[in-house]
Known about the structure:
The protein has 386 residues and is α+β, with helices and mostly antiparallel strands. It has helices at residues 30-35, 89-100, 134-139, 141-154, 170-180, 246-256, 258-266, 312-329, 373-385, and strands spanning 5-10, 14-19, 26-29, 64-67, 74-78, 84-88, 132-133, 156-160, 183-184, 191-194, 211-214, 226-233, 237-238, 241-245, 268-275, 278-285, 287-289, 295-298, 335-338, 345-349, 353-357, 360-361, 365-371.
Amino acid sequence: MSDALIDFNESEAGLELRISDTTEPVTVSWRWLRDHGEDEASRDPETLQRRVDTFAIDSSASGQIERHDGNPGWFSIRWPDGAVTDHSHTLLADVISAYVATDWSRALPSDFAMPADAVLWGDPATAAPDEVKLDAFLGTDEVLTHGVDQLSRYGYLVLRANRHHPKLDRARAEAFAERLGYIRHTIFGGMWDLAPDLTEHADTAYSSVYLGPHTDATYSHDAPGLQYFLCVQPAESGGESLVVDGFAIADELARTEPEAAATLASVSVPGRYIEPGVHLQAERPVFRSDARGVLRQVSFNNYDRAPFLLPAEREQQFYSAYARFAELANDPSRRAAVSLQPGDVFVIDNWRAMHGRNAFSGYRHYIGAYLNHEDLESKRRVLTSA
Ligand SMILES: [Fe+2]
Protein backbone atom coordinates (compact mmCIF):
# COMPACT_ATOMS: atom_id res chain seq x y z
CA MET A 1 0.00 0.00 0.00
CA SER A 2 1.12 3.52 -0.65
CA ASP A 3 2.06 6.13 1.87
CA ALA A 4 -0.27 9.06 2.27
CA LEU A 5 0.36 12.35 0.56
CA ILE A 6 0.31 14.82 3.43
CA ASP A 7 1.49 18.15 2.12
CA PHE A 8 1.94 20.06 -1.11
CA ASN A 9 3.06 23.54 -2.15
CA GLU A 10 3.26 25.21 -5.53
CA SER A 11 6.65 26.39 -6.74
CA GLU A 12 8.00 27.64 -10.05
CA ALA A 13 9.41 24.21 -10.86
CA GLY A 14 6.26 22.30 -9.98
CA LEU A 15 4.58 20.93 -6.90
CA GLU A 16 6.58 20.23 -3.76
CA LEU A 17 5.02 17.10 -2.34
CA ARG A 18 5.64 15.18 0.83
CA ILE A 19 4.49 11.72 1.90
CA SER A 20 4.04 10.51 5.45
CA ASP A 21 7.32 8.60 5.86
CA THR A 22 9.70 11.23 4.42
CA THR A 23 10.73 14.57 5.77
CA GLU A 24 12.11 16.14 2.59
CA PRO A 25 9.60 17.25 -0.04
CA VAL A 26 9.95 15.96 -3.62
CA THR A 27 9.30 18.37 -6.46
CA VAL A 28 7.12 16.97 -9.23
CA SER A 29 7.47 19.13 -12.34
CA TRP A 30 4.57 20.83 -14.05
CA ARG A 31 5.34 18.93 -17.25
CA TRP A 32 5.20 15.59 -15.45
CA LEU A 33 1.85 16.56 -13.93
CA ARG A 34 0.43 17.51 -17.32
CA ASP A 35 1.68 14.16 -18.64
CA HIS A 36 -0.01 12.22 -15.83
CA GLY A 37 -3.54 13.61 -15.54
CA GLU A 38 -6.11 11.03 -14.44
CA ASP A 39 -9.09 12.70 -16.13
CA GLU A 40 -10.70 11.19 -19.24
CA ALA A 41 -8.94 13.52 -21.66
CA SER A 42 -5.52 12.58 -20.26
CA ARG A 43 -6.00 8.88 -19.70
CA ASP A 44 -8.42 6.24 -20.94
CA PRO A 45 -10.57 5.43 -17.88
CA GLU A 46 -10.99 1.77 -18.91
CA THR A 47 -7.49 0.79 -20.00
CA LEU A 48 -5.53 3.50 -18.12
CA GLN A 49 -3.56 3.95 -21.35
CA ARG A 50 -2.21 7.44 -21.93
CA ARG A 51 -4.32 9.76 -24.09
CA VAL A 52 -2.50 13.03 -23.56
CA ASP A 53 0.02 13.86 -26.30
CA THR A 54 3.18 13.83 -24.19
CA PHE A 55 5.20 15.39 -26.96
CA ALA A 56 2.91 18.41 -27.40
CA ILE A 57 3.17 19.50 -23.75
CA ASP A 58 4.57 23.00 -23.20
CA SER A 59 7.36 22.29 -20.73
CA SER A 60 7.44 25.92 -19.58
CA ALA A 61 3.74 26.07 -18.64
CA SER A 62 2.83 26.02 -14.97
CA GLY A 63 -0.64 25.34 -13.62
CA GLN A 64 -2.93 26.53 -10.88
CA ILE A 65 -4.08 24.13 -8.20
CA GLU A 66 -7.78 23.74 -7.56
CA ARG A 67 -8.54 21.81 -4.38
CA HIS A 68 -11.61 19.59 -4.15
CA ASP A 69 -13.25 20.31 -0.82
CA GLY A 70 -15.72 17.45 -1.16
CA ASN A 71 -13.15 14.94 -2.40
CA PRO A 72 -9.93 15.43 -0.44
CA GLY A 73 -8.03 12.59 -2.14
CA TRP A 74 -8.05 14.50 -5.42
CA PHE A 75 -7.12 17.92 -6.82
CA SER A 76 -7.21 19.56 -10.23
CA ILE A 77 -4.76 21.72 -12.15
CA ARG A 78 -5.92 24.48 -14.47
CA TRP A 79 -3.47 25.11 -17.33
CA PRO A 80 -2.80 28.28 -19.34
CA ASP A 81 -4.38 26.69 -22.46
CA GLY A 82 -7.68 26.21 -20.57
CA ALA A 83 -7.31 22.47 -19.95
CA VAL A 84 -8.03 21.09 -16.48
CA THR A 85 -6.39 17.86 -15.35
CA ASP A 86 -7.32 15.71 -12.35
CA HIS A 87 -4.79 14.13 -9.99
CA SER A 88 -5.09 11.67 -7.12
CA HIS A 89 -3.02 11.73 -3.97
CA THR A 90 -2.68 7.96 -4.32
CA LEU A 91 -0.83 8.06 -7.65
CA LEU A 92 1.50 10.82 -6.48
CA ALA A 93 2.22 9.09 -3.18
CA ASP A 94 3.04 5.89 -5.10
CA VAL A 95 5.55 7.47 -7.48
CA ILE A 96 7.17 9.53 -4.71
CA SER A 97 7.56 6.46 -2.55
CA ALA A 98 9.36 4.64 -5.44
CA TYR A 99 11.46 7.75 -6.13
CA VAL A 100 12.74 8.17 -2.57
CA ALA A 101 13.59 4.46 -2.39
CA THR A 102 15.93 4.74 -5.41
CA ASP A 103 19.68 5.33 -5.15
CA TRP A 104 20.15 7.81 -8.01
CA SER A 105 23.94 7.71 -7.75
CA ARG A 106 23.99 4.21 -9.28
CA ALA A 107 24.19 4.77 -13.01
CA LEU A 108 23.38 2.25 -15.74
CA PRO A 109 25.74 1.91 -18.73
CA SER A 110 24.86 4.46 -21.35
CA ASP A 111 26.77 3.55 -24.51
CA PHE A 112 26.19 0.68 -26.89
CA ALA A 113 27.34 -0.83 -30.17
CA MET A 114 25.13 -2.04 -33.03
CA PRO A 115 24.76 -5.78 -33.72
CA ALA A 116 27.23 -6.67 -36.49
CA ASP A 117 24.82 -8.12 -39.04
CA ALA A 118 21.84 -5.78 -38.66
CA VAL A 119 20.95 -3.99 -41.89
CA LEU A 120 19.76 -0.57 -40.73
CA TRP A 121 16.97 0.99 -42.75
CA GLY A 122 16.31 4.48 -41.53
CA ASP A 123 14.87 5.02 -45.01
CA PRO A 124 12.69 2.04 -46.03
CA ALA A 125 12.85 3.16 -49.67
CA THR A 126 16.55 2.30 -49.80
CA ALA A 127 16.60 -1.05 -47.99
CA ALA A 128 13.90 -3.65 -47.37
CA PRO A 129 13.86 -7.40 -46.80
CA ASP A 130 13.03 -9.60 -49.78
CA GLU A 131 9.39 -10.61 -49.84
CA VAL A 132 9.00 -14.36 -49.45
CA LYS A 133 6.32 -16.72 -50.75
CA LEU A 134 4.54 -18.23 -47.75
CA ASP A 135 4.01 -21.66 -49.34
CA ALA A 136 7.71 -21.93 -50.16
CA PHE A 137 8.69 -20.75 -46.66
CA LEU A 138 6.55 -23.52 -45.18
CA GLY A 139 7.65 -26.10 -47.72
CA THR A 140 11.36 -25.79 -48.42
CA ASP A 141 14.32 -25.29 -46.11
CA GLU A 142 16.10 -23.10 -48.65
CA VAL A 143 13.34 -20.47 -48.58
CA LEU A 144 12.94 -20.86 -44.82
CA THR A 145 16.67 -20.15 -44.40
CA HIS A 146 16.44 -17.07 -46.60
CA GLY A 147 13.34 -15.80 -44.78
CA VAL A 148 14.90 -16.30 -41.35
CA ASP A 149 18.04 -14.52 -42.49
CA GLN A 150 16.07 -11.55 -43.88
CA LEU A 151 13.95 -11.31 -40.73
CA SER A 152 17.07 -11.41 -38.54
CA ARG A 153 18.88 -8.75 -40.55
CA TYR A 154 16.00 -6.32 -41.17
CA GLY A 155 13.67 -6.85 -38.21
CA TYR A 156 10.56 -7.67 -40.24
CA LEU A 157 9.38 -9.88 -43.06
CA VAL A 158 6.39 -10.02 -45.40
CA LEU A 159 5.27 -13.45 -46.62
CA ARG A 160 2.84 -13.49 -49.52
CA ALA A 161 0.09 -16.07 -49.88
CA ASN A 162 -0.92 -17.85 -53.04
CA ARG A 163 -3.34 -15.30 -54.51
CA HIS A 164 -5.63 -17.97 -55.98
CA HIS A 165 -5.84 -20.24 -52.93
CA PRO A 166 -5.07 -18.20 -49.82
CA LYS A 167 -5.44 -20.16 -46.60
CA LEU A 168 -7.00 -18.02 -43.89
CA ASP A 169 -7.50 -20.23 -40.88
CA ARG A 170 -5.77 -20.75 -37.56
CA ALA A 171 -4.19 -23.97 -38.76
CA ARG A 172 -2.28 -21.94 -41.33
CA ALA A 173 -1.15 -19.40 -38.71
CA GLU A 174 -0.07 -22.26 -36.47
CA ALA A 175 1.89 -23.90 -39.28
CA PHE A 176 3.81 -20.66 -39.69
CA ALA A 177 4.69 -20.57 -35.96
CA GLU A 178 5.83 -24.18 -36.00
CA ARG A 179 8.22 -23.41 -38.82
CA LEU A 180 10.13 -21.07 -36.48
CA GLY A 181 9.41 -22.38 -32.99
CA TYR A 182 6.22 -22.43 -30.97
CA ILE A 183 3.53 -19.94 -30.05
CA ARG A 184 4.19 -17.95 -26.90
CA HIS A 185 1.26 -17.89 -24.49
CA THR A 186 0.50 -14.55 -22.81
CA ILE A 187 -2.41 -12.67 -21.29
CA PHE A 188 -3.94 -12.65 -24.79
CA GLY A 189 -3.85 -16.45 -24.98
CA GLY A 190 -1.84 -18.25 -27.65
CA MET A 191 -3.35 -17.15 -30.92
CA TRP A 192 -5.86 -14.35 -31.02
CA ASP A 193 -8.25 -12.69 -33.43
CA LEU A 194 -7.57 -9.02 -33.97
CA ALA A 195 -10.68 -7.19 -35.12
CA PRO A 196 -12.47 -4.02 -33.95
CA ASP A 197 -14.17 -5.17 -30.75
CA LEU A 198 -13.38 -3.37 -27.53
CA THR A 199 -15.30 -5.85 -25.41
CA GLU A 200 -12.66 -8.55 -25.83
CA HIS A 201 -9.57 -6.72 -24.59
CA ALA A 202 -9.26 -3.23 -23.19
CA ASP A 203 -6.56 -2.10 -25.58
CA THR A 204 -6.29 0.49 -28.36
CA ALA A 205 -5.01 -2.23 -30.70
CA TYR A 206 -8.56 -3.65 -30.81
CA SER A 207 -10.15 -0.45 -32.13
CA SER A 208 -9.92 1.07 -35.63
CA VAL A 209 -8.01 4.28 -34.89
CA TYR A 210 -4.46 5.10 -36.00
CA LEU A 211 -1.95 3.27 -33.86
CA GLY A 212 1.42 5.02 -33.58
CA PRO A 213 4.65 3.02 -33.81
CA HIS A 214 5.37 1.08 -30.64
CA THR A 215 6.76 -2.17 -29.38
CA ASP A 216 4.47 -4.65 -27.62
CA ALA A 217 4.67 -5.80 -24.03
CA THR A 218 6.83 -3.13 -22.41
CA TYR A 219 5.02 -4.52 -19.33
CA SER A 220 6.68 -7.93 -19.74
CA HIS A 221 10.19 -8.59 -18.37
CA ASP A 222 10.78 -10.78 -21.40
CA ALA A 223 8.74 -9.12 -24.13
CA PRO A 224 7.84 -11.47 -26.99
CA GLY A 225 10.63 -11.41 -29.56
CA LEU A 226 8.40 -11.77 -32.60
CA GLN A 227 4.86 -10.81 -33.35
CA TYR A 228 3.13 -12.03 -36.48
CA PHE A 229 -0.20 -11.50 -38.15
CA LEU A 230 -2.00 -13.57 -40.71
CA CYS A 231 -4.39 -11.36 -42.69
CA VAL A 232 -7.86 -12.90 -42.93
CA GLN A 233 -9.61 -9.81 -44.24
CA PRO A 234 -8.00 -6.45 -45.03
CA ALA A 235 -9.88 -3.22 -44.23
CA GLU A 236 -12.04 -1.60 -46.92
CA SER A 237 -9.64 1.33 -46.87
CA GLY A 238 -6.56 2.17 -44.80
CA GLY A 239 -5.35 -0.20 -42.11
CA GLU A 240 -1.87 -0.72 -43.58
CA SER A 241 0.61 -2.19 -41.12
CA LEU A 242 3.43 0.22 -40.31
CA VAL A 243 6.96 -0.72 -39.31
CA VAL A 244 9.88 1.48 -38.19
CA ASP A 245 13.48 0.41 -37.52
CA GLY A 246 14.23 1.13 -33.84
CA PHE A 247 17.88 0.10 -34.28
CA ALA A 248 18.33 2.67 -37.07
CA ILE A 249 16.99 5.37 -34.73
CA ALA A 250 19.34 4.21 -31.95
CA ASP A 251 22.26 4.28 -34.37
CA GLU A 252 21.42 7.74 -35.63
CA LEU A 253 20.99 9.17 -32.13
CA ALA A 254 24.25 7.58 -30.94
CA ARG A 255 26.10 9.27 -33.82
CA THR A 256 24.39 12.66 -33.89
CA GLU A 257 22.89 13.21 -30.43
CA PRO A 258 24.95 11.06 -28.07
CA GLU A 259 23.51 12.66 -24.94
CA ALA A 260 19.98 11.71 -25.97
CA ALA A 261 21.14 8.18 -26.83
CA ALA A 262 22.88 7.86 -23.45
CA THR A 263 19.74 9.01 -21.65
CA LEU A 264 17.57 6.48 -23.49
CA ALA A 265 20.10 3.75 -22.71
CA SER A 266 20.26 4.55 -19.02
CA VAL A 267 16.77 5.59 -17.87
CA SER A 268 14.64 2.56 -17.05
CA VAL A 269 11.08 3.17 -18.28
CA PRO A 270 8.18 1.20 -16.76
CA GLY A 271 5.35 -0.16 -18.87
CA ARG A 272 2.07 -1.60 -17.61
CA TYR A 273 -1.01 -3.47 -18.73
CA ILE A 274 -4.18 -3.30 -16.66
CA GLU A 275 -7.53 -5.01 -17.07
CA PRO A 276 -9.84 -6.58 -14.48
CA GLY A 277 -7.80 -9.14 -12.55
CA VAL A 278 -4.52 -8.24 -14.28
CA HIS A 279 -1.79 -5.70 -13.46
CA LEU A 280 1.41 -6.45 -15.37
CA GLN A 281 4.40 -4.16 -14.99
CA ALA A 282 8.07 -4.30 -16.02
CA GLU A 283 10.77 -1.78 -16.84
CA ARG A 284 13.89 -1.39 -18.95
CA PRO A 285 15.64 1.39 -20.88
CA VAL A 286 14.43 2.30 -24.38
CA PHE A 287 17.82 1.02 -25.61
CA ARG A 288 18.80 -2.18 -23.79
CA SER A 289 22.23 -3.62 -24.47
CA ASP A 290 23.74 -6.92 -23.38
CA ALA A 291 26.71 -7.43 -21.05
CA ARG A 292 29.08 -6.81 -24.00
CA GLY A 293 27.49 -3.46 -24.75
CA VAL A 294 25.72 -4.59 -27.95
CA LEU A 295 22.24 -3.18 -28.48
CA ARG A 296 19.73 -6.03 -28.14
CA GLN A 297 16.34 -4.43 -27.65
CA VAL A 298 14.44 -1.25 -28.31
CA SER A 299 11.30 -0.73 -26.20
CA PHE A 300 8.92 2.12 -26.83
CA ASN A 301 5.23 2.32 -25.96
CA ASN A 302 3.99 5.69 -24.76
CA TYR A 303 0.42 4.35 -24.51
CA ASP A 304 1.48 1.85 -21.85
CA ARG A 305 4.14 3.91 -20.04
CA ALA A 306 3.55 3.78 -16.26
CA PRO A 307 4.05 6.77 -13.95
CA PHE A 308 7.57 7.17 -12.52
CA LEU A 309 9.64 10.05 -11.22
CA LEU A 310 13.24 11.08 -11.91
CA PRO A 311 15.50 13.72 -10.35
CA ALA A 312 14.71 17.11 -11.94
CA GLU A 313 17.67 17.36 -14.31
CA ARG A 314 17.33 13.71 -15.31
CA GLU A 315 13.62 14.16 -15.99
CA GLN A 316 14.39 17.09 -18.26
CA GLN A 317 16.93 14.97 -20.17
CA PHE A 318 14.53 12.05 -20.34
CA TYR A 319 11.56 13.98 -21.71
CA SER A 320 13.74 15.69 -24.23
CA ALA A 321 15.41 12.45 -25.43
CA TYR A 322 12.15 10.49 -25.37
CA ALA A 323 10.42 13.20 -27.39
CA ARG A 324 13.26 13.16 -29.91
CA PHE A 325 12.93 9.38 -30.19
CA ALA A 326 9.16 9.72 -30.68
CA GLU A 327 9.71 12.37 -33.33
CA LEU A 328 12.00 10.04 -35.27
CA ALA A 329 9.68 7.05 -34.72
CA ASN A 330 6.74 9.02 -36.12
CA ASP A 331 8.63 10.46 -39.08
CA PRO A 332 6.69 9.17 -42.12
CA SER A 333 9.93 8.87 -44.12
CA ARG A 334 11.19 6.20 -41.69
CA ARG A 335 8.07 4.09 -41.91
CA ALA A 336 7.40 1.17 -44.21
CA ALA A 337 3.66 0.75 -44.88
CA VAL A 338 2.71 -2.81 -45.72
CA SER A 339 -0.61 -3.70 -47.37
CA LEU A 340 -1.58 -7.24 -46.58
CA GLN A 341 -3.88 -9.35 -48.75
CA PRO A 342 -5.86 -12.37 -47.50
CA GLY A 343 -3.50 -15.13 -46.39
CA ASP A 344 -0.38 -12.92 -46.19
CA VAL A 345 1.76 -13.04 -43.04
CA PHE A 346 3.62 -10.07 -41.57
CA VAL A 347 6.30 -10.75 -38.93
CA ILE A 348 7.96 -8.10 -36.78
CA ASP A 349 11.00 -8.42 -34.53
CA ASN A 350 9.42 -6.88 -31.44
CA TRP A 351 12.85 -6.32 -29.87
CA ARG A 352 13.90 -4.08 -32.72
CA ALA A 353 11.15 -2.79 -34.98
CA MET A 354 8.20 -0.72 -33.90
CA HIS A 355 4.86 -1.49 -35.47
CA GLY A 356 1.69 0.53 -35.88
CA ARG A 357 -1.32 0.71 -38.09
CA ASN A 358 -3.06 3.32 -40.19
CA ALA A 359 -6.66 4.15 -39.25
CA PHE A 360 -9.12 2.17 -41.30
CA SER A 361 -12.75 1.80 -42.28
CA GLY A 362 -14.67 -1.39 -42.73
CA TYR A 363 -14.04 -4.72 -41.07
CA ARG A 364 -10.40 -5.78 -40.70
CA HIS A 365 -9.55 -9.18 -39.33
CA TYR A 366 -6.08 -10.52 -38.55
CA ILE A 367 -5.00 -13.57 -36.60
CA GLY A 368 -2.03 -12.76 -34.37
CA ALA A 369 0.43 -14.56 -32.14
CA TYR A 370 3.80 -14.12 -30.45
CA LEU A 371 6.99 -16.14 -30.66
CA ASN A 372 10.15 -16.05 -28.57
CA HIS A 373 13.25 -14.23 -29.77
CA GLU A 374 15.52 -17.10 -28.80
CA ASP A 375 13.59 -19.44 -31.10
CA LEU A 376 14.30 -17.25 -34.12
CA GLU A 377 17.96 -17.12 -33.08
CA SER A 378 17.99 -20.88 -32.58
CA LYS A 379 16.40 -21.54 -35.97
CA ARG A 380 18.96 -19.32 -37.66
CA ARG A 381 21.88 -21.11 -36.01
CA VAL A 382 20.49 -24.52 -36.88
CA LEU A 383 19.79 -23.61 -40.50
CA THR A 384 23.11 -21.91 -41.15
CA SER A 385 25.17 -24.70 -39.57
CA ALA A 386 23.32 -27.43 -41.50
FE1 LIG B 1 1.08 -3.67 -30.89
